[in-house]
Amino acid sequence: MTLVGTVRTRIVDGPHRWGRLDVRPVGRTMWATRTLVVHAPGTDRREGMLLRAVRVWPFVGLVLAGAVTVAAQAAPAAGAAVGLGLYALVHVLLLRATRRLRPLVRQLTVTTFHGNGRPEVHGDVDLFAVSVDALTAYEDALRAGRVDAVAFEAAWAHVWNALPAR
Helix (H, G, I), strand (E, B), or coil: what is residue 32? Predict the structure, then answer.
């Protein structure tokens, strides 16, 4: 695969087949947050792209609506109406397309407060660490050809089952 193809695949599909890992470092509030989001085992590329689109649409759609408004210099009110209408339409379509998938997504969040002299950790740190390690290890093994897709999906299912349901 070429470099352009690899980058395009990573942008469209995301870095992980199984979901995502969000890390928010310590900010002004002194809280650090790590969230593991795991899609249901067997989520295919199309479903993963739809889940990713639902997550990023509020920002991307706002930028697109703003661009449509700015592009319609002759009639800014009509441009704003078209931009907001497009935003709402795509948002509703994405929500409708993922209505079966979204309830199956499981997540685990661990937060750390750094303000009292020593860190205060909230959340199931052990489950978080074991889950991230298992998913990344099996994903690396799948990419290297050391395990097949069935073993990878079995490990993915094991982690997904261990995470709390909504």
Answer: strand
Positions in the chain whose pLDDT score sits under 50: none
The mean pLDDT of the chain is 90
Are 103 and 40 within 8 A, CB to CB?
no
Q: Which stretch of DSSP H or E encloses residue 54?
A: helix 45-71
Q: Residue 99 is inside which H or E element, if any?
A: none
Torsion of CA 38, 40, 42, 45, to 10 degrees: -60
> What gap in Å lies between CA 34 and CA 24, rounded to an integer?
6
Helix 125-144, helix 149-162: angle, nearest 10: 170
Identity (one letter) of the amino acid at 66?
A: G
Which H helix or E strand runs over 111?
strand 106-113
Measured distance CA(38)–CA(135) in Å, rounded: 9
